[in-house]
Amino acid sequence: MPAVLAHAFAPHSHDSATKTDAALESSRHGLRALVISFAALMATAALQAVIVARSGSVALLGDTLHNLADALTALPLGVAFWLGRRAATRRFTYGYGRAEDLAGIVIVALIAASAALAGYQAVKRLIDPAEVRLLGLVAAAGVVGFAGNELVARYRIRVGRRIGSAALVADGLHARTDGLTSLAVVLSAAGAALGLPLADPIIGLLITIAICLVLKDAARQICHRLMDAVDPALVETAERILAGVPGVENVGAVRLRWIGHALRAEVEIAVRHDATLLQAHAVAVAAEHRLIHELPHLRAATVHADPDGPPGADHHAILSAHR
């Protein structure tokens, strides 16, 4: 009987082979998206670099550096996706999914470095103006940069949302911002063509500011992940799912956390105090099952069942000093 009682009211786990396969498949999709987008952005940056060397445009240089930094963000993310596919161990009992958060720190550092270098070159050109050559090619490079980044952005965002990777979605939004800065290069070429020599370094400074805005948003998102923040709407959804499970009398604490691009949940529910052990166990399993299958990107859930009543009973009295 003690063993049955412990099993009925202990946390329940739903780690199935299907969920493991789904996690591995999502990592494979993420890696494929990174490889393809890395190749596209490197090709874009290489073409722009050739034109920078011939034209001397610092606005285009800033955009090229930004595109290069965006391409390089695929490397730490790729390592993180690869690590995330490894099985949990006795030391890393939750697996290696948090490697994505560490990759996010590297991404923020790369964005900051590209902003610093672009800003330095723009200020240097303001102090020592120089003629921008091959304006037609500069403008064409800006258009190529916009097209390459927008294609990469759409691909990364689509895959990131499908597999639940906030890091990949953020990287896609970063690429979309890069595309807009590429269009600014076209404006710098137009200004130079109109006889405004300072248009190029001024646009370069504006691109630097745009990079800094992306840096701020990326740093905030990574900080939220490191602090285990989740969208409150996810918590509300989980509470609504649990409340709809037959036999759940009340929903207690609901805790969610992202581990890489997968969610884990720890929840408390109350069942009738006069329910049999088997009935209470069935309610807990049903709640766990509903959560995993109805809450997007949830890979595992732990459900703790408490008896709801009788009035005045304190089923956690022995733990009161620890809470």
From TrEMBL:
Membrane topology, record value: Multi-pass membrane protein
Primary site of residence: membrane
Gene3D superfamilies to which the protein is assigned, alphabetical: Cation efflux protein transmembrane domain (1.20.1510.10), Cation efflux protein, cytoplasmic domain (3.30.70.1350)
InterPro entries per the UniProt record, alphabetical: Cation_efflux, Cation_efflux_CTD, Cation_efflux_CTD_sf, Cation_efflux_TM, Cation_efflux_TMD_sf, CDF_Transporter
GO molecular function annotation: cadmium ion transmembrane transporter activity; ferrous iron transmembrane transporter activity; zinc efflux antiporter activity
Keyword entries, A-Z: Membrane, Transmembrane, Transmembrane helix, Transport
Domain of life: Bacteria
Cross-referenced SUPFAM superfamilies: Cation efflux protein cytoplasmic domain-like, Cation efflux protein transmembrane domain-like
Cation efflux protein transmembrane domain span: 34-214
Segments forming domain Cation efflux protein cytoplasmic: 232-307
Biological process annotations from GO: intracellular zinc ion homeostasis
GO cellular component: plasma membrane
Record-annotated membrane-spanning stretches: 33-53, 65-83, 103-122, 134-152, 173-196, 202-219
Subcellular location: Membrane
Family to which the UniProt record says this protein belongs: Belongs to the cation diffusion facilitator (CDF) transporter (TC 2.A.4) family.
Family matches, as PANTHER family: MITOCHONDRIAL METAL TRANSPORTER 1-RELATED
NCBIfam families per the UniProt record, alphabetical: CDF
Name of the protein this chain belongs to: Cation efflux system protein
